[in-house]
Amino acid sequence: xxxxxxxxxxxxxxxxxxxxxxxxxxxxxxxxxxxxxxxxxxxxxxxxxxxxxxxxxxxxxxxxxxxxxxxxxxxxxxxxxxxxxxxxxxxxxxxxxxxxxxxxxxxxxxxxxxxxxxxxxxxxxxxxxxxxxxxxxxxxxxxxxxxxxxxxxxxxxxxxxxxxxxxxxxxxxxxxxxxxxxxxxxxxxxxxxxxxxxxxxxxxxxxxxxxxxxxxxxxxxxxxxxxxxxxxxxxxxxxxxxxxxxxxxxxxxxxxxxxxxxxxxxxxxxxxxxxxxxxxxxxxxxxxxxxxxxxxxxxxxxxxxxxxxxxxxxxxxxxxxxxxxxxxxxxxxxxxxxxxxxxxxxxxxxxxxxxxxxxxxxxxxxxxxxxxxxxxxxxxxxxxxxxxxxxxxxxxxxxxxxxxxxxxxxxxxxxxxxxxxxxxxxxxxxxxxxxxxxxxxxxxxxxxxxxxxxxxxxxxxxxxxxxxxxxxxxxxxxxxxxxxxxxxx
Length: 489
Ligand SMILES: *[C@@H]1O[C@H](CO)[C@@H](O)[C@H](O)[C@H]1NC(C)=O
Ligand SMILES: *[C@@H]1O[C@H](CO)[C@@H](O)[C@H](O)[C@H]1NC(C)=O
Ligand SMILES: *[C@@H]1O[C@H](CO)[C@@H](O)[C@H](O)[C@H]1NC(C)=O
Ligand SMILES: *[C@@H]1O[C@H](CO)[C@@H](O)[C@H](O)[C@H]1NC(C)=O
Ligand SMILES: *[C@@H]1O[C@H](CO)[C@@H](O)[C@H](O)[C@H]1NC(C)=O
Ligand SMILES: *[C@@H]1O[C@H](CO)[C@@H](O)[C@H](O)[C@H]1NC(C)=O
Ligand SMILES: *[C@@H]1O[C@H](CO)[C@@H](O)[C@H](O)[C@H]1NC(C)=O
Ligand SMILES: *[C@@H]1O[C@H](CO)[C@@H](O)[C@H](O)[C@H]1NC(C)=O
Ligand SMILES: *[C@@H]1O[C@H](CO)[C@@H](O)[C@H](O)[C@H]1NC(C)=O
Ligand SMILES: *[C@@H]1O[C@H](CO)[C@@H](O)[C@H](O)[C@H]1NC(C)=O
Fold this sequence. Notes:
The chain is of the alpha/beta class and 489 residues long. The chain folds into 3 domains: 1-62; 67-235, Pectate Lyase C-like (3 Solenoid), CATH 2.160.20.10; 281-489, Single-stranded right-handed beta-helix, Pectin lyase-like (Pectate Lyase C-like). It is built from 5 helices and 30 strands. The chain has helices at residues 3-23, 27-59, 90-102, 191-198, 290-296; strands spanning 73-75, 106-110, 113-117, 120-121, 126-130, 134-138, 147-148, 164-165, 169-172, 175-181, 185-187, 210-213, 216-221, 224-226, 233-236, 239-244, 247-249, 267-278, 283-285, 300-312, 316-321, 328-348, 356-377, 395-416, 423-435, 443-446, 448-457, 465-467, 473-475, 483-484. The longest helix is centred in the N-terminal third of the chain and has 33 residues, at 27-59. The radius of gyration is 31 Å and the shape is globular. Keywords: Glycosidase, Hydrolase, Membrane, Transmembrane, Transmembrane helix.
């Protein structure tokens, strides 16, 4: 029987049944049953509608309109890009950015989706806008990553001699570049890189996620950067850089060298209102490596780092060095919370670096469950090659710590200067931290000159001059050039 007839037959059956039901004494019950059935059906339909709406909001939110931040705006999808996580969109990025370059600037909108790509270059006067749920995915096959000459102030790739991999998102000699969005993500898929690095399968230094070199007027805000192969965000020899309200994530262990932000030979920079949890230093201010950094001679200076929450189980919340051969000065770090970390803040250097770390001011630091709060280390002996000059001694001076709080700290302070590299003019003003390790010498110093002002707990090392809250001298340091430390701690 053809389908149409079969349906017809069923309808006929139903019609034949219906009058017999009406004529029976069960008519009333039938009507009640039918009404009940309709009500249940209606209720189910609304419930399903409600469920769909709920899903809509959770998984398919109405796209937030993308603001127009430049006169010209383009959509990546209009350049042949496919956001399925499989299609390789390098050409689409290159075509779009080349169009922006030709037009003298513009905005590139990356909509929701997984946009797999190999490394590409930015251009001047451009805004890269990452919509909510937009993810730029770095391809994790190194054959797609171009090699670049080593950074001049490092002489070498940082971990292998010779050239290095470029960064996923790269820029050189640019002006006026913005990377922002509705908290879209740039994901470096670092896992494959970390494993290859550990198994010694890479012949070149891994690339950063975002690296901007020799550029000025850069703003990076309201985005998430995650799982970089190497350092996450690396501004190199740049001026006027603002990094605001970013989230930087990498696994807290087994993600080697995934520093959050590495301002390197940069001037006039601000990093604020951000959350960083990574597998190495949260922030590491640098300026080149030994003889190469000395020759390049570009300091990192006038940098403000504030209102951050940082976790670094492997290293420190905010570091300076160890590569600081071009000098680091005029740095302010304030309103910083470091939690569940190995160290709170650290300055690291060694003989051979040359340069200086000078006029560094830390204010309102909070450490929660941090093994060592404040560290200055002068024997970080990691050199590019045998060509370094062991007599190139860094200068460390004019460092101040104001209002240090915290709890769950094992060693609050460990400042190890040396005869060659003494730490000069350190000031502590107000410190109260809860300690977990009740030994005598937990405020540790060697070759340190400076003062402790006001209430300081735990009791400062003997090396420091002690002043009361009114800055009246209480006692002079007894042993500036001695070692008041307990190396077992
Ligand atoms: C980006 O620009 C740099 C400098 O011009 C160049 O060396 C590099 O190959 C470019 N990278 C890509 C992916 O085109
Ligand atoms: C941005 O996204 C990250 C990762 O999904 C999330 O942890 C963070 O809270 C988000 N930030 C904002 C401001 O929504
Ligand atoms: C590394 O170099 C060796 C020797 O030149 C070569 O055999 C190997 O294929 C290279 N590995 C990679 C991942 O490029
Ligand atoms: C710094 O960069 C921002 C953003 O591009 C720009 O608005 C500002 O004028 C620049 N400031 C200086 C002093 O160059
Ligand atoms: C980042 O920006 C978002 C959205 O504007 C805001 O809700 C959030 O509080 C900001 N985060 C920080 C740490 O300022
Ligand atoms: C540090 O700041 C002071 C005062 O603003 C300025 O005179 C000095 O030149 C700055 N140092 C560097 C290296 O820029
Ligand atoms: C130290 O740096 C701060 C900025 O961080 C600056 O205002 C101050 O003038 C500098 N002091 C000296 C002596 O350079
Ligand atoms: C100190 O920093 C914390 C964040 O770690 C912040 O909540 C607090 O307001 C800051 N205190 C002052 C006096 O700025
Ligand atoms: C010591 O450092 C402080 C800043 O931490 C600075 O104000 C002061 O001038 C320095 N003292 C000497 C003698 O250089
Ligand atoms: C401590 O040693 C430094 C050099 O290492 C020297 O300049 C300084 O005068 C010494 N201070 C004292 C009190 O001996």
